[in-house]
Every structure is written in structure tokens, then in C-alpha cells.
Amino acid sequence: MEAEPSSRATVHVPLEYLAEDEGSVRQAVIGIQTAFGSRIERILAKAGGLLVVVESWREGDEEAAEDLSSDGLKVAVIDRRTWRSLQRLGGASPLAEARQIFESAADPAPVNPLHETAAQKLRSAQVLLEQQCMAGVMDLLASALLDKVAALAGMDRAPPANEAAVWLYGDIVPRGLLAAEQITLILQAVSLSQSPVLPEPLMRQVAGDAERFVSMPANRPFNDYTICRVKTKFRAQKAVSMAMFVGRGV
User: Fold this and answer.
1) Which of 132, 104, 136, 117 is nearest to 4 (CA)?
2) N or C: which end of the chain has fewer CB within 10 A?
3) Domain residue ranges of the chain, discontinuous segments joined by +
């Protein structure tokens, strides 16, 4: 029988097993992983034997268990459906006192590619700032922020900048996905991106805030990320004043 690829995992041997039995248990688990591979959901130990729960039953599983039992430690195999049926019996289940020694890790959730897109746009804006090339910086920062929100919201793309306010207040805010300070940061960047000329210090301030927001881990809840209320309010007021000043052409 062709063995399936499998990843090794830590095996926890129950205290009921004596020290001299621990090596044989671990060796048996290695053989089980080799025989059943990625189909293994869990391995349990009871009364000197091991029970393998596989995702689905295949022809040849019983023979594989018999081969593994030939080394002294008895091995049995059942599928997930049988395991769940036995679990419904509670304390009356023949496996009630079995101890779990291995459980397969759940597959990680796929990461939304917009997280990387947002990071790339942020890096591009930072490179332009370093080279003192201000053209396009605010567009990149605003787009990076919108892409990050879309990624955290599970979307495949962000809306255009001219629809950002309606989207944020009509969809994101009612779902409780962003704090008020975060909404202010994003709309500030989107608004400033519409201005033809902005002071460099202001652009660098927005870039710093954008970096902190974009660097938020993909699996971190929105409300775990908090921007200082006083600092954000001050910057927002300063941004509005500067934008009005530039708009007058002074």
C-alpha cells in the first residue's frame, strides 16, 4: 500500500503508560502517520491499544491496522462518522475513558491577497517619500488603506475612493468592523488624496498612520487596534486646516 505524505506532530503519551512503553507508543504513532497520512483526525489510547480516527474509510485500512498491530501494540481504525456516533453515547461509549494523544491541526484559513496589495502600495508610497517625489503618494496611501479594510472585511476588492465614505458608513460601521478613529484616518487620507498639493510633513504623518493600520495582522479583530483619540483628533483638525489653506492657493 502506498503511504500518504504526513506531517509529524507532537504525541502526548498518557500517564497510564509506563516509561518503558512510551517509546513503543511513539513508534506506533509514526507508523500510523505513515500508513494513513493526512486522513488522520485523531489518535486515542486505551487499555494498551491505539484507535485511529480517519476522515474517511478506504479499502485496505483494516489490513493496515492489522499490520501495525503485529508489533505488539494493538491498533484499530474507524472513520469520522463512526467516531461521532460513539461520541453521542457519552459515558456509555466504549471510548469514554480513551485518552487523545494526537490531533491533526486545522488547515489555516487562506489569507486575503488584498493584505499584500495594501502592503505593496504602502511600500511604494514610502519609497516615493524617501526620494522626495510627492506625486502620487496620497493616492497610494488612500488606496492602501481601502484595500486593507476590504481585506479585513473579506472582500475581493475595495470600492473606488469616491465611494469610500458611503461604503465605510453604510457597510463597515454598521457591522462594527472599525472604530471611529480608524474611519477618520481613512477618510482623511481619501480626502487629502484629492488635493493637488499638500505639505510634505502632513503626507508623512498620514503615511505613518497608514503604516500602523496596514501592518495590522490579518487575523486580528478590528477593535483590537486602537489609534490614540487625542492624537488622531489633533491630526484630523490639522489636516483640514492645511487642506483649506492649500485650497485657497495661499
Assistant:
1) 104
2) C
3) 19-103, 114-247
